[in-house]
């Protein structure tokens, strides 16, 4: 049974979230302030953490920063303001996902499930279905699915899990234009709820790492109004 830590200082919100997660079969744990939240988050007992941003004691960004020094546990940030969302999207905060208040319980549960599924796959690559070929290349880029590593001109690149999964998804069908909605559904793993900025930001970051000149990409190209595609060069 997966155990979720809810770090949220508004008791009424925390209670509603816990109630609904339990109904879906999750175990829950709660922390009502930042210090307790960090303490519990560092215990390593949880499969996922829901982390409010504005908290007494220590804010969610600081908790996440300290947590990431030691742990890769999936974290969904819960934001109340547009500025907080912008900060998550604009910086590499280490958050796996975010939801904006007020959120629907259904959406929250769907994201919790998607992030747990994803981290379970990541944690156990040996159990992943066998690939036809462990290594695929395009241009100067090589992707080793066995090692979950991506190389550019033979040098391993530092990619986030999501960036790695994006590359793998594009590699499944080179030269096919893939819509942002499809990426959201297949790579993020949940239904499209109207905000596709996370896709754009992830694609921008991926290009900054992958491309020699991100302004003139040659690996992952944009088809205006339609989506993105991986240029196989063939
Ligand atoms: Ca709060």
Task: Give structural notes.
It is a single chain. By secondary structure, the chain is α/β, with parallel strands linked by helices. It has helices at residues 11-23, 34-41, 60-68, 82-90, 105-123, 161-172, 180-188, 197-210; strands at residues 3-7, 27-31, 48-52, 75-79, 97-100, 135-138, 141-144, 149-152, 155-156, 220-223, 227-230. The chain contains eight helices and eleven strands. Helix 2 (34-41) runs parallel beside helix 3 and helix 6 (161-172) packs across helix 7 (180-188). The structure holds calcium ion (CA).
Sequence-ordered SSE layout with sheet pairings:
Blueprint: E1 3-7, H1 11-23, E2 27-31, H2 34-41, E3 48-52, H3 60-68, E4 75-79, H4 82-90, E5 97-100, H5 105-123, E6 135-138, E7 141-144, E8 149-152, E9 155-156, H6 161-172, H7 180-188, H8 197-210, E10 220-223, E11 227-230
Parallel strand pairs: 1-2, 1-3, 3-4, 4-5
Antiparallel strand pairs: 6-7, 7-8, 8-9, 10-11
This protein binds calcium ion.
């Amino acid at each position: 049974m997966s155990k979720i830590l809810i770090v949220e200082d508004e008791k009424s919100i925390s209670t509603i979230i816990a109630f609904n997660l339990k109904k879906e079969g999750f175990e829950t744990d709660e922390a009502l302030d930042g210090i307790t939240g960090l303490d519990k988050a560092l215990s390593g007992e949880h499969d996922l953490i829901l982390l409010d941003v504005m908290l007494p004691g220590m804010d969610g960004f600081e908790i996440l920063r300290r947590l990431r020094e030691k742990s890769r546990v999936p974290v969904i940030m819960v934001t109340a303001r547009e500025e907080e969302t912008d900060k998550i999207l604009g910086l590499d905060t280490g958050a796996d996902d975010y939801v904006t208040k007020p959120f629907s319980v259904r959406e929250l549960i769907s994201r919790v499930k998607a992030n747990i599924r994803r981290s379970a796959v990541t944690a156990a690559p040996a159990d992943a279905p066998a690939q036809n070929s462990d290594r695929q290349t395009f241009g100067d880029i090589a992707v080793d699915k066995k090692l979950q590593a991506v190389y550019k001109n033979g040098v391993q690149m530092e990619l986030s899990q999501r960036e790695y999964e994006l590359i793998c998804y594009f590699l499944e069908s080179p030269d096919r234009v893939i819509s942002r909605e499809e990426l959201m559904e297949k790579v993020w793993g949940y239904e499209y709820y109207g905000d596709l900025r996370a896709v754009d930001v992830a694609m921008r970051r991926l290009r900054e790492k992958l491309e020699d000149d991100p302004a003139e990409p040659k690996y992952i190209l944009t088809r205006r109004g339609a989506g993105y595609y991986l240029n196989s060069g063939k």
